[in-house]
Backbone:
């Protein structure tokens, strides 16, 4: 036979087209796309189904040690299996440095965990929490060259936050190495002040977590980060945009020609702060940072996705069990400040978006493919190997039944959080078979892939991480009395 596998008669979707075609696979890659392709050793009948690129989830916390010393609920195996069940075939989790840790060792440790457990392909963002001279001048350049083309920093969290001056050092190191700089951008002082005031006045329930992350803390930090990145002409990716004002800051920056990319997440499109308003401590299941906001923000974020101000929707998967090992680690009645932040979401990201975008028709199938696969693959320099159905690309494919109706429940999830924030929602459209590099890894609700078969994807920063070449006057020798600063 001409091919190893043929996906016959489905509707194929890319960012620009939807068309009926057979997709032929030889080995690990797509060998041909066309009508009436010749036989293969094996066929999958995809008539009535959609043949989509597997999702690329560019923001997920997996088996990650938090600064407070809690490891989240998943292993690389459970997290990537859950991703696969939801149609995602590439993930970019974090290799997280904490203060005092050497970055090369951090990367070795996360590589070892992923090598052992991952069932889909992966890259890493390197979290920098301790920007020493050694980290920035020796370790980081070497690690970027080894295929880690993106860095992440936090502007908040007591043990992780990077102040303005070291942030400039990190932006410069990213620029010198050609890496993307991703950021959790919230104003730390505003949040700390609000937390203390709320708790001192007895407002300790989970819902006050949403109030503590005052809306302005997001727009303020976006502005500050964008200003610093612009000073150095360094491209940035702003993670998890949650407010209308935050989206506007990004739109304005892009309007000025700055290389600012941004993502949002399903929790900001499908949840609001009211979801945290439940009896007792139950609302802790919906606590993440930034918090879900209001219906008007959801609308603003959809609009920003439609206009291209935001380019991707990632999960920010950060699973903690609702028990004494996770959310309730401080005891059965914690105040909101004592509850670990994060939601499980690797598995439901695509089905939630498919239901909203394709089944209910908001923005449509091509935009779904773009936001969930092609755009993140391009921004993080995994394209054309990942993120699209194209000849020569890895055969990472999700076959969707657009009519399958599923009611989400805690029990059906494959991650180890033990719950989904979306339980009870009825969705139409579900991935019924998922392939990674030509291997069927999930079909008809069954896993058929062994732990550790996912591969590391080495990449440099690529096109998205290249500076624009337009210098601010302060940094331009022709306009700053000849000073060479970059
Ligand atoms: N926010 C979360 O909700 N979880 C993980 C990390 C973060 O910043
Ligand atoms: Zn490495
Ligand atoms: Zn974050
Ligand atoms: Zn995150």
Residues:
């Amino acid at each position: 036979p001409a091919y190893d596998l043929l996906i016959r008669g489905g509707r194929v979707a890319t960012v620009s087209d939807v068309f009926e075609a057979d997709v032929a696979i030889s080995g690990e890659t797509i060998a041909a796309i066309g009508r009436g392709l010749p036989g293969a050793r094996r066929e999958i009948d995809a008539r009535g189904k959609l043949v989509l690129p597997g999702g690329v989830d560019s923001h997920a916390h997996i088996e990650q040690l938090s600064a407070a010393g809690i490891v989240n609920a998943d292993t690389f195996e459970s997290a990537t299996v859950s991703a696969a069940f939801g149609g995602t075939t590439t993930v970019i989790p974090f290799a997280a440095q904490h203060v005092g840790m050497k970055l090369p060792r951090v990367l070795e440790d996360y590589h070892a965990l992923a090598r052992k457990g991952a069932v889909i392909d992966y890259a890493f963002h390197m979290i920098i929490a301790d920007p020493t001279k050694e980290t920035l001048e020796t370790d980081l350049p070497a690690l970027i060259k080894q295929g880690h083309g993106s860095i992440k920093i936090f502007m908040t969290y007591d043990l992780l936050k990077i102040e303005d001056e070291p942030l400039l050092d990190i932006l410069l190191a990213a620029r010198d190495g050609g890496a993307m700089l991703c950021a959790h951008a919230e104003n730390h002082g505003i949040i700390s002040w609000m937390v203390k005031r709320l708790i001192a006045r007895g407002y300790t329930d989970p819902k006050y977590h949403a109030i503590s992350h005052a809306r302005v803390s997001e727009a303020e930090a976006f502005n500050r980060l964008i200003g610093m990145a612009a000073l150095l002409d360094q491209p940035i990716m702003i993670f998890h945009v949650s407010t209308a004002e935050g989206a506007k800051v990004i739109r304005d920056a892009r309007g000025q020609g700055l290389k600012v990319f941004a993502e949002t997440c399903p929790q900001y499109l499908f949840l609001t702060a009211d979801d945290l308003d439940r009896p007792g401590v139950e609302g802790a299941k919906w606590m993440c940072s930034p918090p879900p906001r209001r219906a008007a923000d959801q609308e603003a974020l959809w609009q920003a996705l439609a206009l291209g101000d935001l380019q991707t929707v990632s999960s920010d998967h950060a699973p903690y069990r609702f028990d004494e090992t996770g959310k309730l680690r401080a005891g059965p009645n914690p105040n909101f400040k004592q509850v670990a932040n994060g939601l499980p979401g690797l598995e439901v990201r695509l089905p939630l978006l498919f239901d909203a975008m394709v089944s209910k028709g908001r923005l449509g199938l091509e935009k779904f493919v773009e936001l969930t696969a092609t755009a993140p693959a391009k921004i993080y320099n995994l394209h054309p190997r990942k993120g699209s159905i194209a000849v020569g690309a890895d055969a990472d494919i999700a076959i969707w039944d657009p009519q399958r109706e599923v009611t989400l429940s805690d029990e059906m999830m494959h991650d180890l959080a033990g719950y989904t924030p979306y339980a009870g929602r009825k969705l139409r459209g579900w991935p019924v078979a998922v392939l990674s590099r030509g291997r069927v890894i999930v079909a008809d609700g069954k896993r058929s892939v062994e732990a550790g078969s996912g591969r590391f994807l080495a990449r440099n920063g690529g096109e998205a991480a290249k500076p624009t070449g337009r210098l601010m006057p302060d940094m331009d020798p022709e306009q700053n009395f000849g000073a060479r600063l970059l």
Remarks:
- The chain has twelve helices and 18 strands.
